[in-house]
Amino acid sequence: MKKAELTLPEIALIGGTRGLLGAGIALLLVDKLDQRERKAIGWTLFLVGAISTIPLVLEVLGKRR
C-alpha cells in the first residue's frame, strides 16, 4: 500500500474542496432558488471545488511513497 503524509492544513483544504463540490452539486439539484440563480451559484461552487482539487491531487501524489 502506498502512503502519503499530509499536514492538517492540507487535509482541511481537501475537505473544503469536497464541501464546495458537494454544495455546488446540491444547488444544481434543488428547486429552492430561481433556476438561473441556482445554476449560476451551483456551477460556480462546483467549478471552484473541481479546479481547486487539481493542485491538491498533484501535491498528494507527489508525496506518495
Can you walk me through this structure?
This protein is an all-alpha fold. It has a domain at about 20-65. It is about 80% helix and about 0% strand. The chain contains 2 helices and no strands. It has helices at about 10-30, 35-65. Helix 1 (about 10-30) packs antiparallel against helix 2 (about 35-65). The longest helix is centred in the C-terminal third of the chain and has 29 residues, at about 35-65. It is elongated, with a radius of gyration of 15 Å. The mean pLDDT is about 80.
Strand portion: under 5%
Q: How confident overall, as mean pLDDT?
A: 80
Cα-to-Cα separation, first versus last residue: 9 Å
Largest sheet: none
Task: Briefly summarize what is shown.
With 65 residues, the chain is mainly α. 78% of the residues lie in helices and 0% in strands.
Give structural attributes.
single chain, 65 residues, mainly alpha, 2 helices, 78% helix
